[in-house]
Design brief:
The chain is α+β, with helices and mostly antiparallel strands. It is built from four helices and two strands, in the order βαβααα. A two-stranded antiparallel sheet has the order 1-2.
């Protein structure tokens, strides 16, 4: 099991901002690169990046699995 972690490091900001201060994704060790890319996109969404920025930087994926579930997860 691997972990992908985002953690805010500004202590003053953590006390005033009502946003996640720690986001942890637990990933299987045998994750394919496409699956890892989806996890990175989800992390970017959770961090507040816009859908347009995420699509510009990561591109448009062929939808894997259930398209309705991906739409709910990615906004």
């Amino acid at each position: 099991m691997n972990k992908l972690i985002f953690e805010r490091c500004n202590i003053e900001e953590m006390n005033t901002v009502r946003e996640p201060v720690r986001i942890v994704f637990e990933l299987e060790s045998n994750l394919e690169i496409g699956e890892f890319k989806v996890c990175c996109k989800r992390l970017a969404q959770a961090m507040g990046y816009s859908d347009a920025n995420i699509t510009r930087e990561f591109g448009i994926d062929e939808e894997r699995g259930n398209p309705a579930q991906l739409k709910l997860l990615l906004g």
